[in-house]
Amino acid sequence: MKTIGQLIKTPINKGRKCFECGTEYVAKEYSNIGIVYVPGCNCALKKQIQEEERKQRLYNFAILKRRLKDANFPYDTLGTRLKTRTCENIEAAKEYIKNFKPRSRQGLYFVGPVGNAKTTLAVCIGKELILKGYKVKFMVFSQAIRVLQSTYGTKNPLDFMEQVKEFAKYDLLIFDDFGREAYKDRTLTDVADFVNYLYTNLNNVIITSNPEMVEKIKQIPDFQAMFDRFFQMTKRKDFRKASYRRSNG
Predict the structure, then answer these.
(1) Which of 55, 192, 194, 213 is the most exposed place for a label (fewest CB within 10 A)?
(2) pLDDT (tens digit, 0 to 9) for every residue of the chain, 249 residues total?
(3) What is the value of pTM for the model shown?
(4) Which CATH superfamily groups domain 72-247?
(5) Of 131, 106, 110, 107, the residue nearest 120 (C-alpha)
(6) Where in the chain is the domain with CATH 3.40.50.300?
């Protein structure tokens, strides 16, 4: 019995050339169909590899966008990157990014007057780590407390510890404006449980605060142990310059 290739007078693809580089097709014999001319170059393979790489880039970009959105950075810091900053503690920020390791209880505590780029620098660190593939979450500390306490109602499907563990899944938690929240007995207990879990789970945190807020927190009874936990989880970096907002009008 003759093969398909023998029945066809002109072998399949004879005389064809590669559209990409112009290389002529070469003869190859198959047992079931006879001689067929196939590409004599690797252009098709290269194109396939390029297409796979393109799909991977799109996938990575989609993940990146999702992580940036999930981080919930403040609107006025969205376009800011570390390389554009000129504020204090830039070198400390770069060193932190360079040596970052999840679950290492490495953190930073930015303390200084209002408007001198503490929050922006913290967000810049978060963005650089997201670009490196880490998961980051930004929250005003009082907002984090409200989310935790929403577990006592019907709006949050999680219970208190489930919500704590959801927060603890992030590689870095940024808590802004620490100390402005109001503390009552229930809130003190909730925050203590939250901070203790982050501490024992070796979470990495960045905290921003004003000096007067630090002093206010220190005066709250039964708060000292939790405050010490935050100090053990972070290295304090002071911002001493005047407010950028005021100097810019």
Answers:
(1) 55
(2) 555 555 556 777 788 888 888 888 888 887 777 788 888 888 888 888 888 888 888 877 787 788 888 888 887 666 677 677 678 899 999 999 999 999 999 999 999 988 888 999 999 999 999 989 999 999 999 999 999 999 998 889 999 999 999 999 999 999 999 988 777 778 888 988 999 999 999 999 999 999 888 788 777 766 777 778 888 899 999 998 766 555 554
(3) 0.75
(4) P-loop containing nucleotide triphosphate hydrolases (3.40.50.300)
(5) 110
(6) 72-247
Report the alpha-carbon angle 99-101-103, nearest 5: 150
